[in-house]
Design brief:
By secondary structure, the chain is α/β, with parallel strands linked by helices. The protein is 58% helix and 9% strand. The protein has a single domain (12-179), classed as Rossmann fold. The chain contains nine helices and five strands. The longest helix has 21 residues, at 159-179. The N and C termini lie far apart (44 Å).
Length: 180
């Protein structure tokens, strides 16, 4: 089992829709978020984390890539080389209540209020690039991380990946600074 520094198990991740889309982005190989998103998917493949996929995420991805709901589920399964099928999280009354609370208390808009609500109800770590969603999640006590090299620093057992990703990020930043 993978653990963080506070010795609390980090097993379940809930990914915002953007993380799947970044993982499928092959346009910019030097994009840190794209790279980190692909690494998360590789960890799903190795079964180090349990993927939590909601029907909301599947619908959002389906709309973006113009594929049927079933086709999108199959794409998620095959693209990330998951070893076993996963259950799609259905939005139930408990999740709806939490999403409505987040909407009214923090004015967190749809669908982010549902992503945060699902992560909170299921006690998952929310992985998103959305700054507003991250800040509200932290204020509300929802475990959340941004998919960048700092993400890997929270996971002991992966120090080499953290060092390599950090060095690559520095090289790219310096390279881009001198390029312009």
């Amino acid at each position: 089992m993978v653990e963080n520094r506070q010795h609390n198990p980090i097993k379940n991740l809930y990914l915002d829709t953007c993380i799947y889309l970044y993982a499928w982005n092959n346009e910019d190989p030097f994009n840190r978020v794209c790279y980190a998103s692909k690494q998360i998917m590789a960890f799903f493949h190795k079964q180090l984390f349990t993927p939590n996929v909601s029907e909301l995420v599947v619908r959002e991805i389906s709309k973006k890539i113009r594929l049927s709901y079933e086709g999108t589920l199959e794409k998620i399964f095959t693209e990330f080389k998951l070893q076993k099928k996963f259950d799609v999280i259905r939005v139930d009354n408990k999740i709806k209540s939490e999403a409505i609370r987040l909407l009214t208390e923090y004015y967190l808009h749809y669908p982010d209020n549902f992503h945060a609500g699902i992560a909170k109800v299921l006690n998952c770590v929310l992985v998103t690039k959305d700054r507003l969603l991250l800040s509200i999640a932290r204020v509300d006590g929802i475990k959340s991380v941004k998919p960048e090299p700092s993400f890997w620093d929270k996971i002991p057992g992966f120090p080499y990946e953290s060092i390599i990703i950090g060095l690559i990020a520095v090289i790219i930043i310096v390279w881009r600074a001198h390029k312009f």
